[in-house]
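Notes from the 1:1 (GR / supervisor)

We went over the backlog. Supervisor wanted to see one worked example end to end before approving the batch request, so GR pasted a single chain during the call. The sequence is below; no edits were made to it. Supervisor asked that the structure be written out right there so they could see what the output format looks like.
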Amino acid sequence: MNINAAISLTRNPSLWLLLFYLMAPFNLAWSQDAQQATEPENSTESVTLDQTIEAISERRKALENERTEINRRLQKASGQDAELLQKQLALLEQTAATFTAQIIELNRSQELDAQKAADLQEIARLEKDPKPEKPVSVLDLDRAREQLAIESARVKVVRAKVDLAKEDLAQAQLVFKQTQDKLTQLQSQNGAIEPLLLKATEFENDLAEQQQTLRELELKNEEKTFSVYDTHLELLRRQVDYLQQHARFDSAELTKKNESIRKNQFELNRDLSRLNDQQSKAQSLLDQARKRLEATSFEDIQAIEETEARRLELEALKSKTDAAQRKLKLFSEKKELWQKRHAVFNESVERQELPNWRSQANSAIAEIEQEQATIKLWLSDWQSRLNGVGSKTAPNKSFWLSRQSEHIQSIIDTLTDLNGAMDETRRLHQYLIDDINARTSQYNLRDRIKSLINMEINHNSLWDWLYAFAIASMTFILLFVLRWFLMRGLKHAAERKHFSQANEMLSTVKRANLIFFLVIAVFFSSLSLTLDPATDTTIAKITKVVIALQIAIWLSGFIRAWIFRILSRKTKRDGASMGALAILNFTSQIVLWSVAVLLILQNLGIDITALIAGLGIGGIAVALALQRILSDLFASLSIVLDKPFVIGDFVNFGDYFGTIEHIGIKTTRLRSLTGEQIICANGELLDTRIRNYKRMQERRVVFKLGVVYDTPYKKLQSIPAMLKAIIEKQDKTRFDRAHFFQYGDFSLDFEIVYYVLSPDYGLFMDAQQAVNLDIYQQFQQEGIEFAYPTQSLYLHNRPVSQPKLSEIG
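Structure output shown during the call:
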């Protein structure tokens, strides 16, 4: 059993009730023995605590004597000595206060022990189930339940106090350790420290030690408080159980409750009448204020504040009206609840009706809690508005701002009052649920089981349904176990290789669906029930359909295994062959599932003769309509048979480059160099020229370079040999040729051809890069310059003849 199952068992009230009755004699004996055993122990602890308190009082008196001596010396001291004496005096006063706090905590510990002992004594008394001294009213029970709910809500607060006390103790221990280290350091200086300073440090250390002791006492008391709180909660639960058993709810008390509710309803109706008159008056005043505001063109601050105050006044009245109307409904609900509780207490209600009342109460509680959550949101909103109006206040607060605050506060009070009324109604619903639970647990379990078994559901008793469920469960389990044994045997045979078809049969058996088992189990269980013919026919049809589907699933898996496991062994396992097998599998699956669908339709009562005849004529029409698709289908078969490419080949057709990823019936999919998927119809693909780079053995590389015309003849002669040496030293390359190719416009051009002995494009780029770098380095060393586009402009200077003076004149 796991931990969740154990927790669920502990939440079973029937289990706890059984354990309570079984352990009742032992609990009674234990409580008596515990009471007798704890009395001398408590008296011993009391003597010890009294002695401790007396010792602390004596130490506090000793501190008073030291304080008197320090005050006497302080009158004669001055300067630093006076400051140290003042510090000693303050430390002694804090130590005396700490002693007083310790005495308070010790007295508190005694009170907690006494309270726990009283609670345990009361629990032991209630375990004897004494008769009440006076009649117990249902109101006493409600008060006890309310007190239990209030105390139960305090658990987080009590636990938080324990955690806080632990933190305080840890802080006090840290301070005490620091003061101890400081005192030890001063004492190690061997008289180099002033005696007054050393004495003040000793007082400080004593104070830290006593504060640590105080924190320890506080922690023990908080832990004891939690224990007392837990015991008190148990006592409250016992009191509620005791009052639940002995409480009475007579007709006189019900009449009194009804009279109180009617009185409240009368007052609310009167308030509603008055509120309606006040709303009419407030609406009139609001209309007048809006007219005055419009007359001032919305610029008068006082008019704006007055209009807002009038609007809030009207909203406050509407809020009161809505709250009064909701309270009227709540009072009607309370009246009905009190009547139901009276019926439950006096057992004047049918047992079958109690679950309905409990369900209605739970639904009402959920609705009230949802409504209370909405009210809390409204309260938060109005409180923020009130804070906003309050932030506008000043020493000379305007009259209308004060009125706005009053109206907002009135709305908040109305919502708070409504929330309290709804909370009271919610508690009353919960009390009704508790009363029903307490009463239903007292009924005879045998009678309840008997009536439940004889209950008739759809012309069959509950016993018949349980019998059918047992048949269904056994059938399902048998089928599941049979599949498990078959899978185990076939797996063993496949591992031992007893016969070659073991793996295929194993995969087929694995495909036995649990839904198939469930339908078969329901079919066999339905044979033991008396069902109407329509239901029997429906179950039979569903069973036939599921059987047909399961057989189709088995055949589908067998065909797939036969194609991809058996035929694939006899064919070349390349991409194209696997594509052909995939097409064969697809065709076989279409045929299989077409037959399965026809059989299912026939079992459902549909005439398939006309359907099969129509398929022949329709096939021709479909073939004409699907010419393009069929063209692509035959193209895919051509690709598979002729194998111009297979999956994984890198091809180029038109402007597209990519790797073949999938060869389908209609399309072929490629992954381009830039990452996107290219989808091309098979017919169009075969109509284009395709370059298959995957089947390339080596790559021919041709490139050119140019040098400047100023390059000397000797260096031009050495360039081809230089390029050959550079290329031949690269891995996986084969040099072909290098020639002075032509005279360019601005360069002397060389053409170089070599082969990369691999189709890999990355290897080609690595080789080309290495060649280019080596050429650049070699040319730099030889002083050969690369050519680039240039133009040369030559200027020719001619002498200009000077004119003669006679020609000028």
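Supervisor's comment: The chain has a mean pLDDT of 79.
Batch request approved.
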